[in-house]
Description:
- The chain is an alpha/beta fold.
- The protein has helices spanning 27-35, 46-59, 70-78, 82-95, 111-119, 135-138, 140-164, 176-185, 200-214; strands at 2-9, 18-26, 62-68, 101-105, 128-132.
- The longest helix has 25 residues, at 140-164.
Amino acid sequence: MLLGGVDEAGRGSVIGPLVxxxxxxxxxxxxxxxxxxxxxxxxxxxxxxxxxxxKIISLSKSVYVCRIDPQTIDLYVHQKKLNLLESxxxxxxxxxxxxxxxxxDACDVNLERFKHNITENVRNTSAKIYCFHKADTDNVVxxxxxxxxxxxRDRQIAIIEKKLNERIGSGYPSDPMTxxxxxxxxxxxxxxxxxxxxxxxxxxxxxxxxxxxIF
Length: 215
């Protein structure tokens, strides 16, 4: 039996993509993942995630990753449909996994609604779909998927930094380096494609800068 796991990274970020990743493994790989220390990516250091990444890839029977750009995220946030966007891409990922069962980390507080959005559109009808809150903590395969998603996103942030030739931090609004970067570059046309302007911290910063210029 092949067990699949799907998770995301970057949902709360103000810079860079939202990454959704899925993997599938056989039963023999599950104990090995545990023995290697695979757990929710948020509980691991960047170095540990990078070390685990190739091991997870080599063990996986299938891997599929989607990157959602800030412009698409903004479009759905303005419609208050971010959960729908995430379910759409988790459906795409699930359709591209070789698995008998797929466990998905649900972002919606309403599990039934979230699962319905996926099962109504999934083409991989041979796989049974399960959606749980905190699946990235409770299931090692979903944890492994979260590592793939997080490493992919971290590498995308590094690519953005290289293109802009400037440090941007983690991309999350709690990061002082990220906040400083946005403050200093919010009007720079070169960075617009990387910023989520629908996010509240970015809106606040734009308002603050506008009011400062007026007075």
